Amino acid sequence: MRTARGHFVQPPSEFPMARITSHEALRSILQPPRPTTISKISDRLDAQAETFVRASPFAMLATRNAAGTVEVSPKGDAPGFVRIEDARTLLMPERAGNNLAFGLQNIIDTGSVAMIFLRPGTGETLRITGTAELHDDADLLQSLGSAGRPALLAIRVHVERCYFHCARAFLRSRLWDPASWPQAQRISFGAMIAARTGGDASVAEQIDANVQRAYTTNLWSNG
């Protein structure tokens, strides 16, 4: 809620806060995983994981900077857009985007990454943790190209931990069930940016028009 001056304050909660600050306290609530659950964790992709990556059109890439701040960025293209170099190495292309480059800067600074691969209609997800580096070799970028355009950069990921996550989150959320989907929400970057910068309606309309152009004619470039 907000005060008369417009400042946001946390409303009082009807539930007292009991912060969990130790592994022991956590494990008093969540029991240790079964040995069989632990045994699914590997330091490389197996045949099922490789099949999943080759069929996945979408992944989330998490990075962290030197201060520990975490960023998560969506990455998507045709199924198999992430290439498997070997069982412990992946190549992810960097495509045109907003150029904020928070995640790419984090890779330069710390190299720590984590990924979740999704496959439409499949409730299980593939989780990968490891390190990464950026490359700009022209032949490599060309080989990772799409729609006639080379990748802007290549993100080489070295797998340190890999495992499938069960489907319960997707089953509970009914994410792949079209009958559960709400009407799509229209996001207006124009209205958001205009409100924060003092722009008027014409500024908002122009920004939204530029965004739509990026979604259509400029999907593969920032031109």
Task: Outline the secondary-structure elements.
Layout: H1 23-29, H2 35-38, H3 47-55, E1 58-64, E2 70-76, E3 83-86, E4 89-94, H4 102-109, E5 112-118, E6 125-135, H5 138-143, E7 153-165, H6 168-173, H7 189-197, H8 201-215
Antiparallel strand pairs: 1-2, 1-5, 3-4, 4-7, 5-6, 6-7
Helix pairs in contact: 7-8
Account of the 3D structure:
This protein has a 7-stranded antiparallel sheet with strand order 2-1-5-6-7-4-3, with helices on one face. With about 220 residues, it is of the alpha+beta class. The chain contains 8 helices and 7 strands; from the N terminus they run H-H-H-E-E-E-E-H-E-E-H-E-H-H-H. Helix 7 packs antiparallel against helix 8. It has helices at about 25-30, 35-40, 45-55, 100-110, 140-145, 170-175, 190-195, 200-215, and strands at about 60-65, 70-75, 85, 90-95, 110-120, 125-135, 155-165. The chain has 2 domains: about 40-175, Roll (Pnp Oxidase, Chain A); about 180-215, no CATH class. About 30% of the residues lie in helices and about 25% in strands. A hairpin with a 2-residue loop joins strand 3 and strand 4. The longest helix is centred in the C-terminal third of the chain and has 15 residues, at about 200-215.
